[in-house]
Amino acid sequence: MSKPNPLQTLMDTPLDPLPEKWLNKERQELAEMARALDAESPDKYWQWASEQFRWMTPWKTLREGDFPDFKFFSGGYMNAADNCVDRHAENPKLANKAAIIWEGEPLDESRQLTYLELRDEVSRCANALKSLGVEKGDVVALYMQNLPEAFVVAHACNRIGAIHTILFSGFPADAIVSRLETAEPKVIVIADKSYRRGKDVNLLSTWREAKGDCPSVQNTLVFDRSGEQPELVDGEVDYRTLLDAQSHECACVPMEANEASFLVFTSGTTSKPKGVVHSVAGFMMGAWANVFWQLGADPGDVCWCATDVGWLTFPIQSLVGGLAAGTTQVCYEGSPDYPSNERFYQIAEKYKVKKIITAPTLIRMLRTFGDDLAAKYPLPELEVMSVQGEPLDAGSYHWAREKLGPGVPVVNAYGQTETGSTWTYPIAGVDTTKAGSCGSPVPGYRGIIVDDEGKEVPVGVRGHFVLTYPLPSMARTIWKDHDRYIESYFSQLPGTYWCSDEGVKDADGHIWVLGRSDDVINVAGHRLSTVEIETAITSHPKVNDAAVMGVTDDIKGLVPIAFVNLAAGSDETLIAGELKARVQEALGGIARLEAVYVTTALPKTRTGKTVRRLLIEIVEQGDTNSDTSSLEDLSTLEACRQATRI
């Protein structure tokens, strides 16, 4: 008798009703209105959304064109800093409320900025950037951890029409160079150090190592995070000194709705990261919609995006979307389990957090800390826990609903860096949920699941996600490579956006995300290219061949592992350790290999493609159970099985 399919069992589970105490009647009425507009046309919904913002010049045409080249709100001019900062600073109800509450990982450090203070600081920073020669259209890079300065610099760029790009503070020099050689920033703003699990990481030293390969950078603006007053060299300017010399008055530059706002680099199926370009109005609108519907946030609510500023979720839910919604954003610098497992709970309790958005990894981590610790911190103010970035397992979903705070609703959402917003999830305070699902597409979005031929599949059948309607928040190009943009996202099924993810729809209309259909994996919410990792591995002189993939992990969701074929006579244990170190040095700690399996051969098709799904099955199940007909040599599977048993 065959075992029941766990996914099918979950899909057949009845919907979880939303308890009466979590129902939001006002939001229900708005959702009904939004869905009615959407049913008439997604354009009608986005017209309503555009009316929630301040325009310098009203837009003339709501939507022009279709995939891959389209525009929204053509002829309209606005400024993201004006909408995220200034209009709240001018609102008597919000001006003196905290826009940002920052807490450093060291326990004695915290700061707050009201919307009024944030506006002044953003203006000073904008003037500082201008004094360094930054003009509209120039690129400015940020290399720092979660700090108020990340908000300030990003919106200073928005204010003057510069294009910013945020680098993950865990990146080593090589990863910085691979991105900045494409972005070609004129200025980079960095923190001298970052703090993570009690260790201080010298970002300034890492940048100096990379700087020689980034000739476009004319000035480095250094924020003294450590308080150690680092000695600066030529081309380096002290952040605080320069800002203090500036005026707090700086007009917002009118930006056409479709102009570039920022770049975010995402790994693809080739080794060169893609600089995805998001627009001014469209991205902000999609980000605001996520905060409004996914979190159910209202102006003044205290929200915590418990992720890294280098992951696009942070700009969506906090830096842009959170501020656009007029909320108070908690910004925590370090690890949520340092110096003890209580740190996450202590921050949520201390600041009376209402809405939390994070990756499922955090819920899995809290679950391992135990029920007693959760019970110690009842968190009575907490109203929503939302997750995105990777699949949420049913066990963690149920644990959070039962144990976290007062038994909060769990909103599981799906979106991508390229879509600039999540597009399927249960609306907070309105919709019922189901363990593991991502709800159904929300107003303004059109997504379907298709087979390999591009035909929509029936309910219950696995297929590929595609979007059939352009989104205002969607990336408009790849920086300096529009042909790659078209090839990457629109060539597979012309007339649609190809998500490169697989999923299935259940009988209740809920969407289930099943994982990548290409070779990109998610580790704790961070997208990693297997090609980038494999490139680091195969650069070792003793490695003949390698295959990297993601396998299930109870905490991180997925972790990267590698199968490698080594040169004859190699010391397998020694080289396995060297490969782990090599990957970490090349791509940072998030890409650390969980295991290296040495095998005499890899399973390949007749065309030479390594069949990674079979390797995943061997690691996770001990054997293969899917189709092997495409393999050139079946004996390679036994070699890989033996490798995992040693």
How does this structure look, described?
There is one protein chain. The chain has 2 domains: 6-500, Rossmann fold (3-Layer(aba) Sandwich), CATH 3.40.50; 520-645, 2-Layer Sandwich (GMP Synthetase, Chain A, domain 3), CATH 3.30.300. The protein is of the alpha/beta class and 646 residues long.
Supply the key terms:
646 residues, 24% strand
SSE layout:
Blueprint: H1 6-11, H2 25-40, H3 42-50, E1 61-66, E2 69-74, E3 77-78, H4 80-89, E4 98-103, E5 110-114, H5 115-131, E6 139-143, H6 148-160, E7 163-167, H7 173-183, E8 187-191, E9 193-196, E10 199-202, H8 203-211, E11 219-223, E12 236-238, H9 239-244, E13 255-256, E14 260-266, E15 274-279, H10 280-294, E16 302-305, H11 313-324, E17 328-332, H12 343-350, E18 355-358, H13 360-369, H14 371-376, E19 384-387, H15 394-403, E20 410-412, E21 414-416, E22 421-424, E23 447-450, E24 463-467, E25 477-478, H16 482-489, E26 497-505, E27 511-516, E28 520-523, E29 526-529, H17 530-538, E30 543-553, E31 557-566, H18 572-587, E32 595-598, H19 612-621, H20 635-645
Parallel strand pairs: 4-17, 6-7, 6-8, 7-14, 8-11, 11-12, 16-17, 16-18, 18-19, 19-20, 31-32
Antiparallel strand pairs: 1-2, 3-13, 4-5, 9-10, 14-15, 15-25, 21-22, 23-24, 24-26, 26-27, 28-29, 30-31
Helix pairs in contact: 2-3, 4-5, 4-6, 4-11, 5-6, 7-8, 10-11, 13-15, 17-18, 19-20
